[in-house]
Amino acid sequence: MLLTILIVFFSIISLLVFHEFGHFIIAKKLGVRVDEFGIGYPPRLFGKKYGETLYSLNLLPFGAFVKIYGDEAEPLVQSKSQRKKRDPRSFNSKPIWQRALIISGGVIAFWFIAWFILSFVFVTGTLQAISDEVQNPQAKVLITAIAPGSPAEKAGLRPGDVIRRLSGIDYQISINKMKEIQEFVGKHKGQKIVLTIQRGQEILDVSLIPRVSPPKGEGAIGISLARTAIKTYSWYQAPIKAIEATLSITYLIIKGLYQAIAQAVSGVPVQARLVGPVGVGSLMIQAAQLGIGYYMQFIAMISIYLAIFNILPIPALDGGRLLFLGIEKIKGRPVDQLLEQKINTVFFFLLIGLMIFVTIKDIARLL
Description:
- This protein has 367 residues and is an alpha+beta fold.
- The chain is built from ten helices and nine strands.
- The strands form three sheets. The protein has a four-stranded antiparallel sheet with strand order 6-5-7-8. The protein has a three-stranded antiparallel sheet with strand order 3-9-4.
């Protein structure tokens, strides 16, 4: 479990590092000076300067940062001639489209990471859910979730366990389809049954008694199932399939966000719930227990979530900065950067407060 937690932690940090690298690489390509690229937050532990950029490793391991020359608050410059006198290597001296591209670099990086991960997964092979109607002798039925307090949890079953065989007092069957499990369990409610499962390289026998009257929505054993089969793509098909998957996930997330906002505005109870770092970490641990393929796909989905969240037109996020650039384009002159900084600071602390609130809720759920 400790190893899984460490993998999850470094996965999250890696996503944040690549986000900042997106800003960094586009700024470099557009000729903007980058003063520092740091992993973690100060105080600094180690730093090495290459060219004009200091690359640093810092004590607080909560992300990364990039210091771009000229990307700081300054009094509003009204005169075009004054703006032209700025250092041409400065962020603020660049035209709006270049500044927008630099700001968007982090969001682009999130989408790129998702595409890259999915391309790798599709080449190496990934478990894909298939229905019982698909004839596939190599298909596996695995446990995807376990209800708290259920016979499955008490027996020690885990998400990711593959159900190979079911045995009762009268007969046993090998499992290839979900309906075979459902029918077998339905016939043996209140009776002891044995599940032969595969957990990694281990084969285990687990005994339990299906409930006669289970809670609504849980089932007699208290498990959720998925029938899966490994699907691989060629090296030239995988990137195309990864683009399709990235666009599909992006669409579904945006659609879900729109529906949640519409429900909230209309007063309808919102089905979705916010999760903070603790909640995301818990979901990542569950995904890791299902196998490397599931975990990698979940990381790709988290990366897309972060891209969409960052591009929202909320001050303190990349989308908020793009919003201020849009105002500058419409007005023909930049927003006072000191005012922009104050607005960003207010929203930053509001977001931190929301994160703390959601994290407390996440911890309460886990307890």
